[in-house]
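User: These chains co-purify. Model them together.
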Amino acid sequence: QAVHTRDPPQPGGLNSSIWDSSAMLRRIRGPLLAQEMPSVSVLDYALPQRPPQSRDEERDPSERALPRRSSSPIIGSPPVRAVPIGTPPKQAAIPNFNQQILCPKPVHIRATMQQRYPAPYGERMSPNQLCNVPNSSLLGHPFPHSVSPVLTHLQRAQLLGGAQVKLLPAGRMSPSQFARVSGLVGSPLPSVNPKLLQGRVGQMMSPAGGFRAFFGAPPAPPPSQLPHPPGPGSHLQNLRPQPQMFRPDTTHLHPQHRRLLHQRQQQSRNQHRSLNGSGGDRGGHRSSHQEQIRKDPYANLMLQREKDWVSKIQMMQLQSTDPYLDDYYYQNYFQKLEKLAAAEDVHGDGPKKERTKLITPQVAKLEHTYKPVQFEGSLGKLTVSSVNNPRKMIDAVVTSRSEDDETKEKQVRDKRRQTLVTIEKTYSLLLDVEDYERRYLLSLEGERPALMGERKQKICDIYDNLRGKAPGQDRLSDDHFMQIMCIRKGKRLVARILPFLAPEQAADVLMATARNLPFLIKKDAQDEVLPCLLRPFSHVLYHLPLGTVTSLVQQLTNLPQSAAAPTNLHLTAVLQNKFGLSLLYLVLSRGEELQSSDTNTELMQDNQWTELMLMATRELLRIPQGALAKPVSIPSNLISLFSRYVDQQKLNLLETKLHLVQGIR
Amino acid sequence: MNYMPGTASLIQDIDKKHLVLLRDGRTLIGYLRSIDQFANLVLHQTVERIHVGKKYGDIPRGIFLVRGENVVLLGEIDLEKESDTPLQQVSIEEILEEQRVEQQAKQESEKLKVKALKQRGLSVPRADTLDEY
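Assistant: Joint model of the two components:
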């Protein structure tokens, strides 16, 4: 009798089920299905092992020795109202009742059975069924010795195999079995009794299953038709508290999923019944069943209940508190499919097809507040660290090192890390901003202004992050931005951000890029991600006025240059790079567009532009062809641009050099 | 009876004969008796099948409990088509011998390869010292 488990009065207890078979009975205090646990004695929680106890009515913890130290996560956790999803089902209280008893029960056991319920299958009732007849009040004393124990699966299989069953010595049942029994007696279907459902998710199947087995009821008996057995049954009825509000959360099944599950249960039972013939035909029943056993004697080792339990877990996994966060790709994919299907339905002439959808319901998050455990009759509360109530164990203090100690390398590394953190933070903001459209559609009218405000604020924050917000400073340095642009993810980030920025801000970003383009080009040599910026840049350009465009060209080409500088390295670098050249073309094209379309441009601007163009074309003519990069695309209006500023001969040169004429290539 | 549309579940596969490929390369064939949410499998009347070339040999193993994470893939065996195979079944001793020979040959060729690479100044890191990704 080495192992004795405690069974907490709460549903099942998280550890008890594995040790059920040799469990000593605990007196069950109070209502079985209690919701609230008044100051819970730690002894009632799942301490793994306890020395054997005398069966006293009163338990006075203060008289005992100190309880064993427990590292169980349950102590210190909020009382578990719903059995966690991973809890395996209890051992079968009512296993497959059609199994044949090849090894009949020894007589001395049978004699003490008090049959309180009609036995639909007579002597073919399994030992487990017989055992579960409660023959004493649940409030009273534990079972007498005479009650035989529940057989484990192994024992059942042994039974089937004809082996002699060795009955367990202690001959006691655990309270968990009581719990099941109570579920059996007079309990309405789980779907009707939310109380039962709420507290007994892990055992949900049991009452329904056992219920059927016991009464051999037709598929869907309404609760009122249940025969209520006398004696303990009424006791149990009184014990049940009022059904409470069913609050769905992550530990409960969505109604549709539950429906699916019940449908399946009924189907399987119908199958079962139909397979075995009518209820009265015992002989036929037996033979077809025997045949089954002959074909595969080890079939159905996994009970329907357990199969349902596994599929229940799978269905639970579909529930989440925020589907768009947890399961973004599936949600989007599913929406696309739906749209396709909807489009099809619109076009098709036939009736709309009913497609079974797998729903992923959204469920409210359940707040667990930790209430510290308190011993009865003690002062103060126990503070235990557990998964639901983490405690700080180590005081880790961050010591910032002084500047002198650090080497240059470390500084660089830290700076880079800072930049990476900034990028990540900005990305989070960006994802939120991108999501606002969807939220906007889902929200109520009143909430929308608030949403818009939030969104705007986030965009501001993004921009600040990007350009390096410095209090008091007037954003004189591009340094922060350059750091971000040196990292591949940073460039992609900027490309995604640009559509959300205001025109001035976007222009600012563009300028900064153009200004430092050679540096960026050098850094981008390995990644080659700069071209991803071209599309957003072109969108930005579309909205820019001529003045900005002019300055852009200035920045890009680094013109006008001082007379002393022999070569225009800036421009050379730009022209030799794919992105640089493409960007230049884009800008030039935009400028040309503005020029040709808008006749009201100021003379000053016009002059500036013209001068710039003259210088630019001169440079372009100078550069050898081999040094030019291959641009992503060549805008069509470049020819007309250049034709304004150079004579025909030079124009031809330019055309060939830059492959401006489409036909030549 | 489709338990859940659009999902995969092992529940329909229970009590059927399956072929299971494990991460360590073993092939098990047995009746799937029980599963759980981690796809841990209980295989009954399991047989470990060793394939070498066109031959195979079966080693009866009894009951297996396989931890879910070690399963690469599994599939139901069509009992009617099971015997319809071009492979030739041999005795256990023979197949083990064949396997040993095959392993040896592989090791030899591997050694030669490494040697040749070393001579050229290249070294291929061993698979177990590589990062997972």
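Chain B has one domain: 12-120.
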